[in-house]
Amino acid sequence: MTTKGPSLEGRRQGARDVGTVGAFVVGVMMFANIVDMGGGWWIKYLSTFVAAGYVFLNAGRLHFERAPLLIVAFVFGIGPAWALANGIVSGGDLSVATTRVTPFFVGIIYYLLLSRGGSRLALQVFFRTALGLAALTIGLIIGLFLAPEFPPLAATFDYLKTLDDIQGKFGRRAIGPIVWYSIYFKATLFYVPAFVYYLYRERFVYSAVLFVALTLSVSKSGILLCGLFTVWFVLTHGSLRVQAGAVGMVAGLVATALYVVDVEVTVAYANYFIETVTGEAETSQIRIGQLASFVDLMGENPTYLLWGQGVGTAFYSAGKGEVTYNIELAHIDTIRQFGLLWFIAFSLCVAYVALRLIRRRSRIDNGVGYATVSIFVAAGTNPLLITPLFMMLLATCYYYAEASAPEL
């Protein structure tokens, strides 16, 4: 292994040509971590094992620039190792602590894997798999509404319910006058960066599919973020035609909801969403209680703010009314466990990647940059920040930015 970086032209070529076997490993690992994010089918673990073996066998042919390698070693290696040691010393649960640091191991494996190229392919697999999963979600929910007793649909829904809390949230929930079919995969919030990317690619139909999937999955933070990024896109995009297309997409979605779905149901859904945004909903109250408990903990233990309490440690959450190992406010929980200094370094890595792409002239590169920002924000509303998929996506966007890869 060498730390001498290849030339810019070499990196560009590497982004296009990773070899057949390497491309297969890159693509399968990304696909597996989206569709099997909870690990219930074990294909994500198998893909990681294969990727680790591939990296080991090709270790002598990997190339890195020294500065990025040192940053990766510190932020994704030394930092988590410190948090693990800190957690063990503080009496944390080792099994819980292990699950909090393994995503960094997976991210480093993917970083090493992509050093030979394949970032463009990885992004293609990510966006298209997210789009496919969104389309599947829409099909299942609409199908269950129209024909709940249809054997294939009923069997699929019953099977998904056996994976509740493993691969996502599956069941029924009441919203207004109807009982909603909940099909919420663990990767559902990753529809947000895909939505943003296709918005900048001017593939408004694809963005609409992803937004509808988020709406039917009742992902309130996902809906809000898609709305905010759409407003930003419309305000900053120079083409009147494209602005009209984006506004038309939103108007069409609203009109369809009012026409296809009962008005009473639409109003009930809107009220449910407003209650969440204003902090009146139960889930919002839980998060407010979690934030208050975090503030109390930092007040009692000021050193935790800088160095962290350690991974695998627990604290009392007023939101849940019990002692817990993690909370939905992922940014806050990451600061609690890893410390503010590490979180700032990690956030700077994300900002570096995103800004490099946002400052490009290519609107598609801008879309990838804003997609990076969107998932960093979205991951803070659910425990998705310190996950293998987020680390893999960050590594992918870094190489894409560095390689000046051709348009996707």
Give a structural overview.
This protein is mainly alpha-helical and 408 residues long. It has one domain. It is 70% helix and 5% strand. Strands 1-2 form a two-stranded antiparallel sheet. A hairpin with a 2-residue loop joins strand 1 and strand 2. Helix 2 runs parallel beside helix 6 and helix 4 runs antiparallel to helix 5. The radius of gyration is 22 Å and the shape is globular. It starts with 7 loop residues before the first helix and ends in a 5-residue tail after the last helix. 41% of the residues are buried.
In short:
Helices cover 70% and strands 5% of the residues. The protein is mainly alpha-helical.
- Integer-rounded radius of gyration: 22 Å
Query: How would you sum up the major sheet?
Result: 2 strands, antiparallel
Strand content: 5-15%
Number of domains: 1
Give the overall average pLDDT: 85
Helical segment count: 18
Q: What is the strand arrangement across the widest sheet?
A: 1-2
Broad shape? globular
String of helices and strands: HHHHHHHEEHHHHHHHEEHHHH
Helicity range: 55-70%
Low-confidence parts: 1-16
Distance between the termini: 29 Å
In terms of topology, how is this protein built?
Elements: H1 8-16, H2 20-35, H3 43-57, H4 66-89, H5 94-114, H6 119-146, H7 151-161, E1 168-175, E2 178-185, H8 191-200, H9 204-216, H10 220-236, H11 240-260, H12 263-277, H13 282-300, H14 302-307, E3 315-317, E4 322-324, H15 330-338, H16 340-358, H17 363-378, H18 388-403
Antiparallel strand pairs: 1-2, 3-4
Helix pairs in contact: 1-18, 2-3, 2-6, 3-5, 4-5, 5-18, 6-8, 6-9, 6-18, 8-9, 8-10, 8-17, 9-11, 10-11, 10-17, 15-16, 16-17, 16-18, 17-18
